Each structure stands twice: as C-alpha cells, then as structure tokens.
C-alpha cells in the first residue's frame, strides 16, 4: 500500500504497461511454487502507482491472481474458480491492540474481536490460500466493506519484525504497517515453512526502490573545461 505519485502518461512504459521502462522488473521475476494460493484485490486507484508492490508479489507466486476493482459478488468470482471461503484467510488490518496480541514476528488467526484463536496454528496449517487487499489504508478499508464475502474468510493478523523498506518514501499510519509485497512475503514465508522465501521475494522490491532513488537524484553538473594558462 502506497501513496507515491503515479508515473506520468508521457513515461515510456514497460511491456506490462504498469511501470516506466527503467523501473520494470517483469523479466527478472521468477514465480515460486507454493502450497497456498494467493489472491490480491487491488483498488483501481492503486494500479498505476509507480512504487506499487502488488504485481511484484503476484508475479513471484505461481498461479497467483490479481484483480483490480472495488467489489466482486463472491470469492469464486474474484478468484476465477470455486473455493471454500472457510479455508482461505484474509490478511486483516486489525487494530494496534489486535497486532499486539500476536508475538512480534508471528502470525495468527483471530476472531472478530481480534483475539487469537486457541487452535490458530491448526487453522493456519489447514488454509488453502490467502487474500490481500492492495491500496492505501483508506482504499483497503473500502475494499473490505464493499466485499461482504470477506467476512466468511479467516482473519489472519501478522506482526512483522521489521520496518517497511519504503522508509521515508511514504508516511505509514502505524509502525508495523508494511507494503502489500512485504506482508505477503512475510505471511507466505511463515506458512510455507521456507525461511528463505521472504528474503527472495523482497529482493526485487529493494531493486525497485534503488532504481527509483537513482532516478530522482539530480545529475551532477559537469564542470566547465579549465582555461589553459597563457
């Protein structure tokens, strides 16, 4: 989720049409085969944001689905195939109190009051997939309230043990807030039992931010040639 200004219409775009060519990482992304399915619901105003991370996430997970819009009648329509909502989890924003109930670096399924379920680990192990909402904080809330079927999914709360790589690029509503890619990589790394998965999925994000920072740095002025001594 980010509030970075979108690219201008005059930018030369990459083959996927969503980034300027110099920021495109599409050819460098390799999808990983995961046990869990992945569905990302993206707010329409987020799809052309220059430093958005939803595509960096879905392009790295085999079979992942990215849907752009505001509402879908049910999960099957959004996913494009039948699915049991009770065996899918949605990464829930939760309150500060909800996140605080989950150990730092942990992940849990919570009830509607934000309390971790006693059988949280067993529920997580039984999940078939995860749903993430992509947009600013307010846009994500819009997606949540406009898709009532999300209430049928398991509410999954994460407590990241790191700060977002966005740094000062944007102002987050809370310290533990991270990008869509970072949240998805964190959750998948824990649930897939692959300690290195999170790091591998975040490398392209570091590359994107580095290229973006270099693009914004003003070019050093070229000094005029020295005048030869008489």
UniProtKB/TrEMBL annotation:
InterPro entries linked: DTW (IPR005636), DTWD2/TAPT (IPR039262)
Domain annotation DTW: ranges: 10-217
A Pfam short name: DTW
One GO process term, biological-process aspect: tRNA processing
Alphabetized UniProt keyword annotations: S-adenosyl-L-methionine, Transferase, tRNA processing
Documented EC number(s): 2.5.1.25
Example of a GO MF term: tRNA-uridine aminocarboxypropyltransferase activity
SMART domains: DTW (SM01144)
PANTHER family in the cross-refs: TRNA-URIDINE AMINOCARBOXYPROPYLTRANSFERASE 2
Family per similarity comment: Belongs to the TDD superfamily. DTWD2 family.
Protein name: tRNA-uridine aminocarboxypropyltransferase
Organism: Rhodospirillum centenum (strain ATCC 51521 / SW)
Species lineage: Bacteria, Pseudomonadati, Pseudomonadota, Alphaproteobacteria, Rhodospirillales
